[in-house]
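debug: dumping io for the single-chain case to check the tokenizer round-trip. Nothing else runs in this session.
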Amino acid sequence: MIRVLHTEWSDGWGGQEIRIIDEILSLQKYDVKSYLACRKDSQIFKKAQLNNIDVFTLPFKGNLDLITIVRLFFLIRKFDIDIVNTHSGKDSWVGGLAAKLSGKKFLRTRHLSNQINSSRLNFINEISDFVITTGETIRKDMIKNNRIKPEKIISIPTGPNANYFNPVKYSIEKCRTKFGIKDEEIAIGMLAVLRRFKRHDRFILSARYLIKKYPEKKFKFLIAGEGPQRINIEKLIKDNALNNNFTLLGHIDCQPEFLRSLDIFVIASDSGEGVPQSLIQALLMNTPSISTNVGSVADLFLEDNFLLVEKKSQESFNQALGKMLKNIDKEVIKTRNHIKNNFSEDVMAEKTFSLYNSILKKRVS
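debug: decoded output
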């Protein structure tokens, strides 16, 4: 059996935290026993408990939090951990140092596309035994900017459950009724944590553009997700007199139904993304999609299966929505099989388990 201790200092609940839980659960069918160390009041702690994952709470107060390092050291020894898999900046320092002090393997997962400080003092990623990124762009950036050897880094995109995200399982009519979408309305939506880099402001400005550009059409704009930008998003909607056009759903646990209800799904981010889970989910659901060309989004692109737009251009985003509207009743190229065969949960789990065995080859051979 391979024993893995995951670490995460984040308090939020977004794509990164969801990936950690999903990865732990998906590897249960292999000979892997996973543990999680996180902060007491974090969302991932609650989700881990709900999923019966062995979870421990630690302070994670900083890069050199000695109390956390020592407690991780003893957890590693107590449960005979083989691999410490870190996920954020702060926990990579304490988790990585604890792994090295214990003589265990240190695996670093990098989820975001923002470039990591290239200073020689920021050496924690370099001393890892291996690095996983969630997209090819991130992998190439870390090789170029953070001195990671090409043979020590691999891209394993986050993979949703393709059986769960299967459009044939969900009635469009029932899903639209659930979210209050009328037959004559064109439903356009976002599914993302309400953070600044997700650029909900761009989505809102595009909504204003569409309403003015196509006065004969009836639109309904939906935002699913919760986060620190909620107040700012509500204010921007109000300032643009769009209260009657927007619905803020908050956090939802029925993503397939939400995506099935939409005529168009959008990602408006200008940074931070790896390969976004929500876009993979939308493509698995055959939902017509538009995304800014950010992070490793282009990894998903095949035969125009969605529209890619410039990440810094509001005009390009508006035009892409207009283009999608003109083709909304036409046959959309479906590439569900491509996504399922390359970016599903099963593929993620298989590649991760193979990597574990490769890292531990001296112990499991």
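debug: round-trip ok. Residues 2-159+344-364 form a domain with the Rossmann fold fold (CATH 3.40.50.2000).
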